[in-house]
Amino acid sequence: MDKALFISIEGCDGSGKTTALNAVYQRLVSQGYDVVRSREPGGSAIAEQIRRVILDPANTAEDVRTEALLYAASRRQHLIEVVLPALKAGHTVLCDRFIDSSLAYQGFARGIGIDAVMQVNQFAIEGRMPDRTIYFDIDPAVGLRRLAGRSALDRLDQEKLAFHQKVHQGYAQIIAADPGRFIIIDAAPAPAAVAQAAYQAIAGLLEHHV
Ligand code: TMP
Fold it and tell me: Which of the residues in the chain have pLDDT under 50?
């Protein structure tokens, strides 16, 4: 078991998690915390190439199981190249999305099944679950309104409200099955307040971790 913490960041599209994570990361680094920030899908050269295939709006024919396998492949590559070496070197890893995204989006919202997607992902992660997960909770309708202000929407952002509502339900099921791993942040307030709540949660984990 690594001594360093592996923390994943999860939430529906438009939850503001990436903006909050950037602010938290800068603050932690400026305070001398030894943290590495990364993201999925992507986070390494090969995994970023897989990301482009998955999210290209032109890939309308992409089968849902192909999509699940590509996310798992991207996850594997990023885990091996970035996450595990960083943990081994003693850095805390803050990862913007990890396995719960696949369980909520592909397993629940796409209808493949959470257990089936978990199996595929176990092949990819060989049991390396995040130690803790920060979940940014947002009403999907609010999330989508936030996304509407963005210029480039990827293939999943372009899904309709019903899909994002299913993703939200999927997350609720996953959290209910493993409540001790999750810290839930209310992502509805203004960005600065959400970032402050996320900072308190993550700094709290780091302070109590020996
Ligand atoms: P991002 O917008 O947080 O960069 O994530 C890109 C999209 O990919 C987002 O809509 C969530 C989706 N996604 C999945 O569907 N399954 C996954 O396993 C991951 C990591 C992301």
Answer: none
Q: Is the CB of 16 under 6 A from ligand 1?
A: no
pTM above 0.85, yes or no: yes
CB-ligand 1 contact for 11 (6 Å cutoff):
no
Using CA atoms, how far apart are residues 4 and 7, in angstroms rounded to an integer?
10
Atom index in ligand 1 nearest the CA of residue 18 equals 3
State the pLDDT at residue 140: 97
The closest residue, in CA terms, to atom 16 on ligand 1 is: 102
The CB of 171 under 6 Å from ligand 1? The reply is: no
What is the residue whose two structure tokens read 């199996």? 119
Q: What is residue 107's predicted lDDT score, i.e. its pLDDT? A: 98
pLDDT recorded at residue 10 = 98
Tokens of 94: 């803050």
